[in-house]
């Protein structure tokens, strides 16, 4: 394969020592390195190397100005804004909402040599027309809006004056100044000749520079494009070059470079794969099928550069890869740590810490060794006293009380924003330095490298905060921190010219490969589509010749087709899964390839599904070893509850995890009230409200008093178990209202009973035990349970269990005893019968007894009582014959639990 740069090298290498008179200008540094390598391979005698520039340093050389970086320019833009004689100035924090976009517009105006005063005057008139009204006076909002457009040109002037006085220039101003100084530059370098190689989309300043240098007779330009697209009057790949071919210079000189690449041997595979990870895995599969020599002539072009990480993990181990795009520091694990630091550090001193943020920071994988080094045992205390608590918001005082042993850590690392930026930055610098000193990071060179970048960013922020007094708010500092960090990347080791090449689309400029893999060829990604970030409306841009989304699409269309033109094999992968954000529709470029007579015969469509071995859904099974049987016996003989046996009935594997392995369920801390906390608040509120009535007949007056206390008691419980009701919003605020209403519903139900008969509260949240011997089991069972409430209604005892979830009457009744252990949703009936056994022969529970459930989700049903409907009429009293029948079922269940031939088998549970 003959590459574009090898052809250029063939033209100029024979000049020998005359090469030193030439200056080669290319679109990128990478292309410059490739050209230098090509020239070096063709020169056999010692000589002075020619100058090889990428375009941006070349323009800066022409302009004789310095680009200080966008952060410094943004700060100076705000200083220029504050210098304007305006009635009101936005704060720096508000400015950050519109300033960066305005800076981009200023750069574009200068790059395209637009008369700024004319454009901004027209922009002002356009906005006035949009907001024209017959009323003489405008509203303050419209007045402020119009004032913004009116001050743009004065701000443009003030900003240019400020940065020019410092010898600075933003990128657009560099181009404007370079175009103004080109004649002077040509005079000062009369001994030089220039060669412009492989350019495509030039801004107006570049067009002026190129044309003047070409007209001088001491410059040449080579353009890299297939004649098929250059001669097509509408194809976007040749859009810009058709314009340049109309330059006056080319009326008398040849347009150098374009060739016909309609090679018939080329193969283009169009590969549809769902989602990013599958695309990257497929790329790895393609690369493994190539020989080492073939991989050395292959490029992987990432249409979505965020896919770099999954691609790295998919690359063949034996492949030598050069990744020139670098790994962005903000995507690293260490950078995620600093996002958490900002979340906690930028809050006010008195503001509570959201528990998920606190837990995420303390348990961050890069920090856990650090905390243990600071205070051994700290993480165990943190899990016990904070993670396992239901409290959602914590302040510094609460943390101190929870873990007083860590008071030094709390004060040093978890104190809030100090209203002094320099003090906050100094704290974070100290934190960074202590992390750098910590030995655990030495095993992770990536984390250490990122941390050095973070340390340098804190130093830069400290300098900014000292120099610019208006940088005094947490969000402003965080914006600058993120911007400074985003400019940094971790460079991969590799040879830019050897091995598999991994890059983004723009890095491929001027480079050619025999095999090309381009990923994410979807609308919205390649090309990007109608994305814009500008204060200038489309119509105004069009009128002044500024680039719109159409021109930006044409830029990438050219690069896409240029990559294809010399390649022998092309693989284009695209996402087939519907996804608005990640591109669910194949790119228009694929449709164009299939429609174009030059390429459609080369294309093969190949939808691909990720490899997956189908395994039947065999339920997970755990055998009962002697050790497991021993643990079960120990549990049954020490304390067995209805909840444990119900867990076995619902799903035996749940019983194994919780009661054999003793694995606790994770305590959710997403800020939303959990079902468990909701239930605890209901139970504890009712216990507090009804305790004064225990042992008494409830009068309507007493229950009316209870009802008046409900809101206060529930709110106090909510504050203890969840968060301060005064600060509750969203779903939790609704949950608080539901809690109060739920308790009111039960009190209203009891009030109605008290008005119609006699209601006496016997016990609340009392624990009952019973030792029970069953046939076939050589040890007594230790039955245990805490019964929510036992009352006496009109002389009949009632065991009542509260449920905050929905319960229907059929769940607490039996039409056949075979249903009880069959897993058909009769666990609640089982629980009520179990409570009946606990109360059997209890000295304080004499007389007829029933059992039922009060569901707060369907409180209108009242207490839904157990009933054995296999008898006629249905049996509702828990008398001895009925409980003896239950003992037989319980004995059968326990024998199954102890049977080593009956393994624990996973059940599929709906809505679990």
Q: Can you tell me about this structure?
A:
The protein is of the alpha/beta class. The chain contains 37 helices and 25 strands. The chain has a seven-stranded parallel β-sheet with strand order 7-12-6-13-14-5-15. The longest helix is centred in the C-terminal third of the chain and has 27 residues, at 730-756. The model has no long low-confidence stretch (mean pLDDT 86).
Helix content: 40-55%
Strand arrangement across the biggest beta sheet: 7-12-6-13-14-5-15
Mean pLDDT: 86
Give unreliable regions as ranges. Answer: none
Q: What is the CA-atom radius of gyration, in angstroms?
A: 38 Å
Number of strands: 25
- Fraction of residues in β-strands: 5-15%
Q: How many helices does DSSP assign?
A: 37
Distance between the termini: 61 Å
Question: What form results from the Cα inertia axes?
Answer: elongated
Structural class: alpha/beta
- Report on the biggest sheet: 7 strands, parallel
Topology diagram in text:
Layout: H1 4-12, E1 22-26, H2 29-40, E2 51-54, H3 55-63, H4 70-82, H5 92-95, H6 99-111, H7 116-130, H8 140-150, H9 152-165, H10 171-180, H11 182-188, E3 193-197, H12 204-215, E4 219-222, H13 227-230, H14 239-244, E5 267-273, H15 276-288, H16 292-295, E6 298-302, H17 308-314, E7 321-323, E8 327-328, H18 333-345, E9 353-354, H19 355-362, H20 368-374, H21 378-387, E10 393-394, H22 396-402, H23 407-413, H24 421-437, H25 445-467, H26 474-486, E11 489-490, E12 500-504, E13 515-518, H27 538-544, H28 549-565, E14 569-575, H29 588-595, E15 603-605, E16 621-622, H30 626-638, E17 640-641, H31 642-650, H32 652-660, H33 675-690, H34 700-721, H35 730-756, E18 759-772, E19 781-793, E20 796-803, E21 813-814, H36 827-839, E22 849-855, E23 863-865, E24 867-868, H37 880-898, E25 904-905
Parallel strand pairs: 1-2, 1-3, 3-4, 5-14, 5-15, 6-12, 6-13, 7-12, 13-14, 17-19, 20-22, 21-24
Antiparallel strand pairs: 8-11, 9-10, 16-25, 18-19, 19-20, 22-23
Helix pairs in contact: 1-2, 3-10, 4-9, 6-10, 10-12, 18-19, 24-25, 25-26, 31-32, 31-36, 33-34, 33-35, 34-35
């Amino acid at each position: 394969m003959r590459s574009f740069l090898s052809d250029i090298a063939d033209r100029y290498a024979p000049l020998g020592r005359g090469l030193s008179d030439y200056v080669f200008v290319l679109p990128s540094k990478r292309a410059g390195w490739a050209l230098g390598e090509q020239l070096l391979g063709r020169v056999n005698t010692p000589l002075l190397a020619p100058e090889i520039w990428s375009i941006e340093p070349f323009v800066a050389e022409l302009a004789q100005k310095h680009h200080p970086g966008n952060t410094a320019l943004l700060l100076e833009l705000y200083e220029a804004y504050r210098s304007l004689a305006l009635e009101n100035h936005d704060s720096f924090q508000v400015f950050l909402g519109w300033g960066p976009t305005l800076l981009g517009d200023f750069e574009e105006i200068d790059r395209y040599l637009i008369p700024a005063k004319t454009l901004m005057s027209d922009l002002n008139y356009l906005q006035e027309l949009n907001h024209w009204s017959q009323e003489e006076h405008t509203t303050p909002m419209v007045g402020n809006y119009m004032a913004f457009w009116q001050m743009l040109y004065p701000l443009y002037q003030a900003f240019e004056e400020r940065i020019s006085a410092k010898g600075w220039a933003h990128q657009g101003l560099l181009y404007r100044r370079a175009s103004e100084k080109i004649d002077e530059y040509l005079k000062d370098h009369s001994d030089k000749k220039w060669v412009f190689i492989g350019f495509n989309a030039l801004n107006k300043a570049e067009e002026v520079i190129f044309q003047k240098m070409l007209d001088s007779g001491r410059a040449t330009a080579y353009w890299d494009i297939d004649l098929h697209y250059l001669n097509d009057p509408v194809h976007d790949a040749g859009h810009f070059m058709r314009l340049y071919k109309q330059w006056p210079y080319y009326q008398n000189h040849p347009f150098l470079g374009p060739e016909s690449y309609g090679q018939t041997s080329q193969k283009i595979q169009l590969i549809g794969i769902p989602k990013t990870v599958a695309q990257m895995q497929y790329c790895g599969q393609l690369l493994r099928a190539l020989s080492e020599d073939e991989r050395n002539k292959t490029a992987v072009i990432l249409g979505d550069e965020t896919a770099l990480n999954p691609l790295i993990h998919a690359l063949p181990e034996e492949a030598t890869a050069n990744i020139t795009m670098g790994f962005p520091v903000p995507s690293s694990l260490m950078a995620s740590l600093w996002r958490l630091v900002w979340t906690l550090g930028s809050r006010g001193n008195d503001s509570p810490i959201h528990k998920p943020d606190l837990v995420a920071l303390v348990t961050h994988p890069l920090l856990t060794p650090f905390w243990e080094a600071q205070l051994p045992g700290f993480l165990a205390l943190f899990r016990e006293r904070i993670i396992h608590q239901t409290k959602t918001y914590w302040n510094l005082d609460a943390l101190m009380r929870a873990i007083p042993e860590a008071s030094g850590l709390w004060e040093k690392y978890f104190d809030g924003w100090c209203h002094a930026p320099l003090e906050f930055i100094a704290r974070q610098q100290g934190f960074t330095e202590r992390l750098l000193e910590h030995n655990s990071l030495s095993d992770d060179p990536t984390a250490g490298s990122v941390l050095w970048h973070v340390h340098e960013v804190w130093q830069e922020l400290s300098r900014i905060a000292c120099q610019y007094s208006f940088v005094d708010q947490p969000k402003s500092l965080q914006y600058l921190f993120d911007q400074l960090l985003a400019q940094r990347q971790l460079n991969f080791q590799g040879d830019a010219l050897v091995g598999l090449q991994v890059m983004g689309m723009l890095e491929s400029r001027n480079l050619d490969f025999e095999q090309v893999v381009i990923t994410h060829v979807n609308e919205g990604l390649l090309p990007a589509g109608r994305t814009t970030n500008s204060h200038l409306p489309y119509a105004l841009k069009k009128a002044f010749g500024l680039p719109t989304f159409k021109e930006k699409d044409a830029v990438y269309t050219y690069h896409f087709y240029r990559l294809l033109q010399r390649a022998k094999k092309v693989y284009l992968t695209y996402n087939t899964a519907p996804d608005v954000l990640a591109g669910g529709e194949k790119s228009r470029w694929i449709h164009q390839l299939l429609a174009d007579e030059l390429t459609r015969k080369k294309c093969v469509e190949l939808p691909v599904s990720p490899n997956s071995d189908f395994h039947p859904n065999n339920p997970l099974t755990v055998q009962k070893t002697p050790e497991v049987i021993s643990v079960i016996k120990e549990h049954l003989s020490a304390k067995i509850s209805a909840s444990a046996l119900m867990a076995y009935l619902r799903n035996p594997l749940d019983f194994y995890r919780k009661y054999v392995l003793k694995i606790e369920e994770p305590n959710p801390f997403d800020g939303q009230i959990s079902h468990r906390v909701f239930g605890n608040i209901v139970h504890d509120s009712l216990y507090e409200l009804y305790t004064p009535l225990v042992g008494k007949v409830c009068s309507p007056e007493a229950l009316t008093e209870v009802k008046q206390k409900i809101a206060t008691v529930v709110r106090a419980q909510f504050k203890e178990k969840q968060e301060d009701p005064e600060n509750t919003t969203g779903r939790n605020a609704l949950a608080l209202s539901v809690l109060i209403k739920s308790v009111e519903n039960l009190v209203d139900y009891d009030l109605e009973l008290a008005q119609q008969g006699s209601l006496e509260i016997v016990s609340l949240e009392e624990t009952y035990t019973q030792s029970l011997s069953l046939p076939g089991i050589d040890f007594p069972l230790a039955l245990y349970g805490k019964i929510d409430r036992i009352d006496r209604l009109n002389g009949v005892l009632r065991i009542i269990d509260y449920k905050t979830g929905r319960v229907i009457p059929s769940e607490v009744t039996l039409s056949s005893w075979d249903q009880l252990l069959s897993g058909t949703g009769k666990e609640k009936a089982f629980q009520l019968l179990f409570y009946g056994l606990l109360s059997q022969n209890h000295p304080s529970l004499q007389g007829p007894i029933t059992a039922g459930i009060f569901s707060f989700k369907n409180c209108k049903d009242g207490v839904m009582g157990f009933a054995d409907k296999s008898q006629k009429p249905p049996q509702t009293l828990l008398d001895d014959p009925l409980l003896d029948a239950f003992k037989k079922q319980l004995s059968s269940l326990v024998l199954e639990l102890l049977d080593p031939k009956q393994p624990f088998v996973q059940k599929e549970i709906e809505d679990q």
